[in-house]
Amino acid sequence: MNKTVKRLTFVIVLCVLMISILPAIVSANSAEPPSMVILVNNPPDDLSIVMVSNENQPEAIVRRVAWEGYYVFYSRHMQAGGEYTFRVNTNGESFNLTLDAPLQRYNNVVTLDISNRELTPGKYSFRSVLLVSIRLLLTLLLEGIIFWLFRFRQKRSWLIFLAINLVTQGALNVWLDSGGSLMPSYLILSLLVGEVFVFAVEMIAFPIFIREHKKSRIFIYAFVANLISLIAGGYIISVLPV
């Protein structure tokens, strides 16, 4: 086994450890209270959802991000188990849907399919793949521009750049997506924690594998690229679905 393979194996092992020791999201009231979020893809402007199984019949608090709508009910509207019935109003029509799955998570996400009039636990199909791909491509584009500005031109350097970022940024975005929450406050905290490990891995890996410039320049690049990526990541979380 040559030195390059050994070093690559070291980075992969380090990334696996990074994922395994990242803290799990726990139930705490430091940000948003416990909630149920009804996720709607491309919701109509006039859509409203009322929880009719609650005697007060509260209407969902609405938050829209890009092509998604989040219709939120907080813990004061919820009970530990049992059925939830919602009245959906849109396009001059009204219909009721019942969710009989028990709510056990701190933040519950269910998806409303208006055309089929279905309410199902979890997020809609291919959502995770779509959002992880978008965030990963934006990160690669941004850090690639910075990589070019630092005058990296060799093919080998670019292949190493691509390989390391696919592992570190891919792992970070998959981890962010696995948290379950759709609330930016939680995800920004998770991003800050995750980026600490990405900083560490990339600032070790890039100087080891890239030989095009002095290690000092490579080290500075890794720091600058990840700092800008962290700032951009926070912005992306605020304007795109997560």
Number of helices: 5
Q: What's the total count of β strands?
A: 8
The string of secondary-structure elements, in order, is: HEEEEEEEEHHHH
Radius of gyration over C-alpha positions, nearest whole angstrom: 22 Å
Judged by helices, strands and strand pairing, the structural class is alpha+beta
The amount of beta strand, in percent, is 15-25%
Would you mind describing this structure in some detail?
- With 242 residues, the protein is of the alpha+beta class.
- It folds into two domains: 3-28 and 126-239, no CATH class; 35-121, Immunoglobulin-like, CATH 2.60.40.
- It contains five helices and eight strands.
- The protein has helices spanning 3-21, 127-149, 155-177, 184-209, 215-239; strands at 35-41, 48-51, 61-65, 68-74, 84-90, 93-99, 107-113, 118-121.
- The strands form two sheets. Strands 3-4-1-7-8 form a five-stranded mixed β-sheet, with no helix packed on it. Strands 2-5-6 form a three-stranded antiparallel β-sheet, with no helix packed on it.
